[in-house]
Amino acid sequence: MAYRVPDLAALELLLAVARLGSLGRAAKELGISQPAASSRIRSMERQLGVGLVERSPRGSRLTDAGTLVTDWARRIVEAAEAFDAGAQALRGRRDSRLRVTASMTIAEYLLPGWLIALRTQRPDTAVSLFAGNSAVVAERVLSGEADLGFVEGLDIPSGLDGAVIGHDRLVVVAAPSHPWSRRRTPLTGRELAATPLILREQGSGTRQVLDAALAACGPLAPPLLELASTTAVKAAAVSGAGPSVLSELAIGEELAARRLVEVPVPGIRLGRDLRAVWPAGQRPSGPARELLGLTRGVG
């Protein structure tokens, strides 16, 4: 049917000619040249097999067939306008909210700044944030409960696409009262693996990176404490409950004030990528795309 029915641009031109009584004025109103308008009318006449417009020095008038086609064209154009209005309403509804889910470190230490910046660009967009470990973030994005997710870890979770937005480093830390803070020799990977630590739970990006880094250092000791947030882990370490492994993003103030002391572990790679993730094959759009653009270059 598409090749038998004129396109919307041609129908809009015909309606303008009927309303203004002049092909030249119709072309000007639609922002096209008069030769282009004439060519469009002739093409439509050939397509329909009937004459639509009679041209004279005094202007342009519709033929009887042109008057009939104009009535049909008006209904089509009105339907197209209604379609466009509905599509705009759908876009507006989509762009009026943004559901974000992020792993704890990103949610606590990076996302607030990004969301403040997004607010200046999209003051009418309502943003909701759910924080959890990287495994939970992946589940929420895959299930459609979030438009955009942020994870820390070694790779992109299955079923998702993603982009590296920055880098982070895990740091072994202890309170100043802990013997490790006064060591004269570096801590070894085997010692770290054999020591009960204050750690995030299984499924967190921090735990994933640490377990992979120490995989060759022998069996890992059971955690001294296993906590569900970076803030809780940090507080326990500062209290002197035991050593921990935390994101460099989370401990800048504690290291500067010497509430925590970094314990070097030569030869153990504790770097990790920070990633934005979304369902495979579905690039972020609307406010999710704008938020993604604000996140690049961390670490």
Average pLDDT rating: 88
Tell me the structural class.
Answer: alpha/beta
How do the helices and strands follow one another from N- to C-terminus?
A: HHHEEHEHHEHEEHEHEHEHEEH
Unreliable spans = none
Helicity range: 40-55%
For the largest beta-sheet, the strand count, sense and barrel status come to:
7 strands, mixed
The radius of gyration is 32 Å
Considering the chains and any ligands shown, give keywords for the structure.
299 residues; alpha/beta; seven-stranded mixed sheet; 11 strands
Structure description:
By secondary structure, this protein is of the alpha/beta class. The protein is 44% helix and 21% strand. It contains twelve helices and eleven strands. Strands 3, 4, 5, 6, 9, 10 and 11 form a seven-stranded mixed sheet that branches. Strands 1-2 form a two-stranded antiparallel sheet. It has a two-stranded parallel ribbon with strand order 7-8. A hairpin with a 2-residue loop joins strand 1 and strand 2. The longest helix is centred in the first third of the chain and has 32 residues. The chain starts with 7 loop residues before the first helix and ends in a 6-residue tail after the last helix. The mean pLDDT is 88.
